[in-house]
């Protein structure tokens, strides 16, 4: 017990130093947003992009640097941070990166999750967007004073998707036929649960996003300290005669070597997206004098004029889309309409914003027209300054909405799976260290948690995949949440209770993956395709995996 007191005291000191570094990073960010020689939007976005890396670098500096410290002490302190913080957050990292893989899968399998006959999306000009809007406003007249987003049909998702908030601020999704405008279904595919777990931990967005932002900063510190703590790390990776190391350690280093750039990018951009409660007041106060509405308008094209409850003719969406604007025509001639955001349709304060996306990282743009058709905003990211380009490009990189979809989705899935393995290996190494130090009960407890999370999350995701093959349940959002939570919690309880739980959960995962194409064929008449083949291959591959302890060689 006496040895634990200094350890806990040292951890508190390190947390205090990181918080102190955050205040210093906030002060530097404020100075950048005030003094950068450019427009307010550029100052705000450059400062926003710099905030999290500044915090990371300053935190590493204050933790490592000491006056009159002996040689090599900085590396030892960084390694202590890596081991302590990594051990504390190994399970959280597995959940964050694993749910990120699920979020990419949700986007890639958007069409697959709905058991519909294969159809082709008509050209945008032939899609009944205006009829869909008119019918929706007739059925839900309260939307006249609200906001709704229409996503035109595409080959990836061949139906018109409409998103808005219901009376209780709950998200509502409706899908419509892209040729007739007839309603098809309500609700999201089952994998939305994993996506929302990654974005807000299935809680209130304010709480969930803030927690995830803090986790992103902590994961960036873990990654940087892991690299800085290994003085001969790269040389040991590539030289022929390596020092004696456990196999788990060498695999951990190799996986870290290949995934570090992507992991650091995701950690920093995730922290930027999550810590808006900190970032926005700093840059908004410095660059805009606290005018948050102007900040949102200049940076995110989010113009929200006050409600003017005077009825006028509704805007014609197809005509608005066709009108375009000069910058979009010049820089984004080949971009496609991604979303049409309609606010106060049929009222004098109404606006229509058209968001466009191309294949490149910076091929983004938008234009906004008022209810009377006047052009209120026109922007194309290739024509913006470096601050806006860096800020919005970082967001696009985080979500993976750029480049050839198949390539980006595959790369993000593989890298995300690698980061889950990296976190799991880190937990295995920590458990082994605890066991070597005589903390056998703590090591056993950590191994049980690693097995529970490492098998529970994919098992719960596979259960959602199975739901997507049953047409009557594929849009049952509440049921999807209950199934995911029940399977995940059951896996955690089994891992903590039974010694053979890992084998049971492993076999259950194989059975679920192989059952997906069978259930889809028998229940929904879905002919097995590429996705089903991949699931069967993964299941058979897991079946052939032998449980070998990662021991020194």
Folded structure, characterized:
With 553 residues, this protein is an alpha+beta fold. The protein has three domains: 1-114 and 189-297 and 385-435, no CATH class; 124-188, Nuclear Transport Factor 2, Chain: A; 438-553, no CATH class. Helices cover 62% and strands 9% of the residues. It has helices spanning 4-35, 40-64, 73-108, 129-139, 192-200, 205-229, 233-238, 247-274, 276-288, 292-300, 317-323, 326-331, 386-399, 405-436, 440-468, 477-497, 501-524, 530-543, and strands at 147-151, 159-165, 171-177, 183-186, 336-343, 351-357, 364-370, 375-380. It has an eight-stranded antiparallel beta sheet with strand order 4-3-2-1-5-6-7-8. A hairpin with a 5-residue loop joins strand 2 and strand 3. The two termini are 34 Å apart.
How would you concisely characterize the structure shown here?
The protein is an alpha+beta fold. It has helices spanning 4-35, 40-64, 73-108, 129-139, 192-200, 205-229, 233-238, 247-274, 276-288, 292-300, 317-323, 326-331, 386-399, 405-436, 440-468, 477-497, 501-524, 530-543, and strands at 147-151, 159-165, 171-177, 183-186, 336-343, 351-357, 364-370, 375-380. The longest helix is centred in the first third of the chain and has 36 residues, at 73-108.
* Uncertain ranges: 1-5, 547-553
Q: State the share of residues found in helices, binned by percent.
A: 55-70%
Class by SSE composition: alpha+beta
The tally of structural domains comes to: 3
- Tell me the radius of gyration: 26 Å
Distance between the termini: 34 Å
What topology, given as strand order, has the largest sheet? Answer: 4-3-2-1-5-6-7-8
Shape: globular
Number of helices: 18
Mean pLDDT: 89
The largest β sheet comes out as: 8 strands, antiparallel
Question: How many strand segments?
Answer: 8
Task: Kindly estimate the percentage of residues that lie in beta strands according to DSSP.
Answer: 5-15%
Q: What is the ordering of alpha helices and beta strands?
A: HHHHEEEEHHHHHHHHEEEEHHHHHH
Pfam families: PepSY_TM
Transmembrane segments: 12-33, 45-65, 85-105, 211-230, 274-290, 411-431, 452-473, 479-496, 503-523, 529-545
Keywords: Membrane, Transmembrane, Transmembrane helix
InterPro entries: PepSY-ass_TM (IPR005625)
